[in-house]
Write a structure and sequence with these properties.
heterodimer; A: mainly beta; 11 strands; B: four-stranded antiparallel sheet; 0% helix
Chain lengths: 115, 112
């Protein structure tokens, strides 16, 4: 079956531009997570949705980062006024179980490069 | 695809040998632990998990050991194959409604 998909796979943005990253979770998965992975590091938690409700956004690094999942399926991570330190791979994961205890299935990520 | 990690600790093993990847976790309140495998250009892939009420769990060719006394986790891969070459991350989850915390990762390189 189809896994988690993310688009675009690669994004180059000039500093100051806004970007929108899309995540299509596995159909029927309740929970959706966004992570940021810097080169050579493990993924770092950004935010978590259960259905359409954003239950935890404690990992978002600044108010330039915004995520939504309006219909409880597809999610978009938006970064406003991108900075060079935003360059990273942005990973999306989904899990079937509500709460954050279920096995998380990761997408391939979107590599964002801010020039 | 892009490289996952350029400056990670690296473990090189001969094909067919056993591999042991170690991880020190930080939070004594963590009660759930997972090992992930990440190949270049891909997202992390679940390998095996263990809860804090266990000290060992086996899967297919993989075994996870948990030592809560010293907050240490290890992943053993039997008969390592070229397809096992990847970066391996441990992740811990403190109890309650808290997110996963990933470790820094180890690159496993299998020599054919």
């Amino acid at each position: 079956g189809a896994g988690v998909s993310q688009s675009p796979r690669y994004k180059v943005a000039k500093r100051g531009q806004d970007v929108a990253l899309r995540c299509d979770p596995i159909s029927g998965h309740v929970s959706l997570f966004w992570y940021q992975q810097a080169l050579g590091q493990g993924p770092e938690f950004l935010t978590y949705f259960q259905n359409e409700a954003q239950l935890d956004k404690s990992g978002l690094p600044s108010d330039r980062f915004f995520a939504e999942r309006p219909e409880g399926s597809v999610s978009t991570l938006k970064i406003q006024r991108t900075q060079q330190e935003d360059s990273a791979v942005y990973l999306c994961a989904s899990s079937f179980i509500g709460g954050d205890g279920g096995e998380q299935y990761f997408g391939p990520g979107t590599r964002l490069t801010v020039t | 695809g892009e490289s996952v990690g350029l400056h990670l600790p690296t473990l090189s093993v001969q094909e067919g040998d056993n591999s042991i990847i170690n991880c020190a976790y930080s939070n004594s309140a963590s009660d759930y632990f997972i090992w992930y495998k990440q190949e270049s250009g891909k997202g992390p892939q679940f390998i095996i998990d263990i809860r804090s009420n266990m000290d060992k769990r086996q899967g297919q060719r993989v075994t996870v050991l948990l030592n809560k006394t010293v907050k240490h986790l290890s992943l053993q891969i039997a008969a390592t194959q070229p397809g096992d070459s990847a970066v391996y991350f441990c992740a811990e989850k403190p109890s309650g409604n808290t997110p996963l915390v990933f470790g820094k990762g180890t690159r496993l390189s299998v020599i054919a």
